[in-house]
Design goal:
The complex is a heterodimer.
Chain A lengths: L4 H22 L4 H12 L4 E4 L6 H10 L5 E5 L6 H5 E6 L4 E6 L6 E5 L6 H13 L1 E4 L2 E4 L5 E6 L12 H4 L4 E4 L5 H12 L18 H12 L5 H16 L3 E3 L3 H17 L7 H12 L4 E2 L1 H6 L3 H9 L8
Parallel strand pairs in A: 1-8, 1-9, 2-5, 5-8
Antiparallel strand pairs in A: 3-4, 6-7, 10-11
Chain B lengths: L14 H14 L1 H20 L4 H10 L1 H16 L6 H5 L7 H4 L9 H10 L4 H11 L5 H29 L3 H12 L6 H38 L1 H24 L2 H22 L10 E2 L7 H5 L10 E2 L1 H33 L9 H4 L2 H6 L5 H10 L3 H20 L9 H7 L5 H19 L6 H15 L3
Parallel strand pairs in B: 1-2
Helix pairs in contact in B: 1-11, 2-3, 2-4, 2-11, 3-11, 4-7, 4-11, 7-11, 9-10, 9-11, 11-12, 18-19, 19-21, 21-22
The chains are: A alpha/beta, B mainly alpha.
């Protein structure tokens, strides 16, 4: 970093803190989910969120978008959803006598793809292609999606009948997978109080949120992230963790190099959150779970034993030596 | 054994008919046989429960199975001959010294169900018992192995069924029931209550299967005696004799002169018979040399029925081949057993993945020995040579190792800087602050590429020497 390092660092740390605290005005609890989401957003990734209905996934998306006056979109994935329902299509305008393009809900800043595993593979692939390429082709015309662009796809861990589980190759395109669980008693009481106090509505209102950063500031934040120092030993540490998933005895499918990249990019944001201009092994370890949990598959033995992916990853982290020299 | 009082119809039966007969016997006298089993098994269950570890409880209970089965056999042998069931009669089976072989050398014998009746009921000496077993079961020993295999499977099925039944009735939903059932089967992490329940389930399964196991074995024994010794014919003759007893007695009284005539005729017949039996046609012998491991199957292989085991000759070459085959088989089993233990331990040991446990492989003493002889001097030497990173790396590593050795913080190789700091939160303040300062210096040079001032380095080194390094 150059002589403006301190200013840049100060700006980045403040911006991250402001976004986090703004989201927490309406999204109560779930600290780790908010942290994961924020890091992934700044790292230009996409999130796969797993949790039962009613835990505030839509609210989280809307709150994040409200932080920078961004646009939000929501697609409820169903078995009859077509790729053009996501990307858009061209339609003949009778009045003007020509085809015109109608852009789909993908043209937004933050897109909530609700219950992504309810749509068939063809429709899923259309969305995942946009996530990867950041552009959409409709009738041979290519359109860039909005910037910043982030997809937050949700999956329901129950009611698996009639779903189309995401293939491994497509899962890999999500930078992280975050698990949203039930809140504890105190948090739930606070949510209920906020949602019902002095109004008829039963949901939390994101209108109270004032934008705290601009789109330009977000792009600047992303730029600063790229200049966070990553020592060779830390890089090697991240790679060793990912490589360990490929040889560990309880794992049938290990993570790809995309996981190593995601771990470093996420760790950079984590370092900025801690007001550091360099990544330390703790940052890598902190992001290892969300980065790896959807990229590995356990062996049948461990699945039958009821071991979770998180348990296996934690055990795996305990086997990789931390840098000491 | 009073054959006339036998409660079942004797006739030569096939293997499956024997199993059927055994099952029917077990069903007919199940309560009495089960009580006889409980008589000995229950005390063993209580003793087993006194052990701390579940595996030892299970092993103890399982090892003494031949003892409990012996009571069932004795009870069945009394009931089948229409006798009166008494505790003394049941316990008579324990006088057989060969029983202790079943608890030691022959504990893993697959043929216990059919061998036990010979040992317990016929009261023969060791050598005769062995010969008799070979002779009686020479051409048909498959059922014992099948019965043992079925018995094991039935035991396992009953145990699983009891577990499933318990959890699916006591838990409110399927997932909890499934999780509970899986938890109880993970014997490494089983709790006290679960182990008691599991042991009880195994005990019940052992009791149920033992009654059927022994009954089928006994039915096989009866069948072999019927085939080999003509028990059915003997019984038939005895019945005829009983019915005609009065008539024969009368005839003997009325026609006393016939006795002398009969005696004379009998001596003539004996002479003729001896002549015929001594003829060369009746004295043809044929020597068959077979490998030792096939000697038991000689009847099936050569379609001969009446070869006595003592007349089967085993060639030296065959004996050597047989021993080599046995050696290979036993070695393979041992290797397979060791491999399974290794795999089980490697996969499901203390952690989920135990392929390499770097964090726990190094003891504190080894880690201290991994440092150079004079740590302080080496650190300073690196610093003077402008090898700042090497110098601070050694300072940091040495601090972590010394603090861990001194305060037993359980720091592992996988612990990052933040985790080391967290683990040393409760140690002596001076040592903790020194480690914190050295960690900061290390992180600056290692990850931020920022060289600390010499003054800061010297200060950290002094504190290291004073609070962390061993005297």
């Amino acid at each position: 970093m150059n002589s403006d390092t301190n200013d840049e660092l100060q700006f980045a740390t403040d911006a991250l803190q402001k976004i986090a605290s703004t989201i927490r005005q309406v999204f109560i609890g779930q600290e780790s989910v908010v942290n994961d989401l924020l890091r992934c957003f700044v790292a230009s990734g996409h999130v796969l969120l797993e949790g039962v209905p009613g835990l505030g996934k839509t609210l989280l998306v809307r709150a994040l978008a409200a932080c920078f006056s961004g646009k939000t979109g929501r697609i409820q994935f169903t078995p009859d959803l077509m790729p053009s329902d996501i990307t858009g299509h061209s339609i003949f305008n009778m009045k003007e006598g020509k085809f015109e393009v109608r852009k789909g809900p993908i043209f937004t800043n933050i897109l909530l793809a609700d219950e992504i595993n309810r749509a068939p593979a063809k429709t899923q692939a259309a969305l995942l292609e946009v996530m990867q390429e950041q552009r959409v082709s409709i009738d041979d015309i290519t359109f860039q999606v909005e910037s910043p662009f982030m997809v937050l796809a949700t999956q329901n861990p129950i009611e698996q009948d009639g779903t189309y589980p995401l293939p491994e190759a497509e899962l890999d395109r999500f930078m992280i997978k975050s698990l949203i669980s039930y809140p504890d008693e105190a948090t739930e009481a606070r949510i209920v109080e906020l949602a019902t106090h002095g109004k008829y509505s039963t949901s939390l209102n994101v209108d109270v949120i004032e934008p705290c950063v601009s789109v330009d500031e977000i792009n600047r934040l992303r730029q600063i992230t790229t200049s966070v120092e990553v020592d060779e030993s830390v890089l090697s540490y991240a790679v060793r963790i990912v490589r360990e998933t490929r040889v560990a005895s309880g794992i049938s499918r290990g993570a790809s190099p995309r996981a190593s990249i995601a771990a470093i990019v996420m760790a950079r944001v984590a370092a900025l959150q801690e007001a550091r201009t360099y990544v330390i092994p703790d940052d890598v370890k902190a992001v290892a779970l969300p980065v790896l949990r959807h990229r590995i598959a356990l062996t049948t033995d461990l699945e039958i034993e009821g071991k979770s992916t998180d348990t296996v990853i934690e055990d795996l982290l305990a086997q990789v030596e931390a840098p000491r020299s | 054994m009073q054959i006339e009082q036998l409660q079942v119809a004797l006739k030569p039966r096939t293997m499956w008919e024997c199993a059927d007969l055994g099952t029917k016997l077990a069903l007919r006298w199940f309560p009495s046989l089960a009580i006889a089993w409980l008589l000995i098994a229950l005390p063993f269950l209580f003793i087993a429960m006194q052990f701390e570890r579940f595996l030892i409880q299970l092993l103890f209970l399982w090892w003494f199975k031949p003892l409990y089965e012996r009571t069932v056999l004795m009870a069945l042998s009394i009931l089948i001959f229409d006798g009166r069931l008494t505790i003394r009669g049941i316990l008579r089976g324990f006088t057989d010294t060969r029983l202790w072989f079943y608890l030691t050398l022959f504990r893993f014998s697959w043929r216990r169900s059919e061998n036990t009746p010979i040992d317990a009921l016929e009261e023969l000496d060791f050598t005769t018992q062995s010969q008799r077993r070979q002779w009686l079961y020479a051409s048909d020993n498959r059922i014992a192995v099948i019965v043992t295999s079925f018995g094991l499977m039935i035991e396992a099925i009953i145990v699983l069924a009891l577990i499933a039944l318990f959890y699916f009735f006591t838990q409110s939903d399927f997932n909890s029931a499934y999780a509970g059932a899986l938890k109880i089967l993970n014997i490494n992490e089983i709790g006290k209550q679960e182990s008691t329940f599991l042991l009880s389930a195994i005990f019940i399964a052992m009791g149920v299967s033992a009654v059927f196991y022994v009954s089928v074995g006994f039915a096989t024994y009866l069948n072999r005696r019927t085939i080999k010794e003509g028990w059915d014919l003997e019984l038939g003759f005895k019945k005829i004799v009983n019915r005609l007893g009065v008539l024969v007695l009368s005839a003997a009284l009325v026609l006393p002169g016939l006795e002398a005539i009969a005696r004379e005729s009998a001596s003539d017949v004996e002479a003729v018979l001896s002549e015929v039996l001594d003829a060369p046609e009746f004295n043809q012998t044929k020597t068959i040399t077979v490998p030792e491991h096939l000697s038991e199957y000689v009847h099936d292989l050569f379609r001969v029925e009446d070869v006595e085991p003592s007349r089967i000759q085993v060639g030296i070459g065959s004996r050597v081949v047989s021993w080599i085959l046995k050696f290979i088989l036993i070695s393979s089993l041992i290797v397979a057993f060791v491999f399974l233990i290794y795999k089980f331990h490697a996969t499901y040991g203390s952690g989920v993945l135990r392929r390499r446990a770097k964090g726990s492989d190094f003891t504190q003493s080894i880690r201290v020995k991994s440092l150079p002889a004079n740590v302080l001097q080496t650190i300073q030497q690196h610093w003077l040579n402008q090898e700042i990173r090497e110098s601070l790396s050694l300072l940091y590593s040495a601090s972590v190792i010394y603090v861990d050795a001194k305060f037993t913080c359980n720091i592992k190789e996988c612990d990052t800087e933040g985790e080391c700091i967290r683990k040393t939160r409760d140690i002596q303040a001076d040592a903790r602050d020194t480690l914190l300062e050295i960690t900061q210096l290390w992180m600056q040079i290692a990850y931020a590429k920022a060289t600390p001032s010499e003054e800061r380095f010297r200060s950290a080194l002094q504190r290291f020497e004073k609070h962390v390094a061993p005297a």
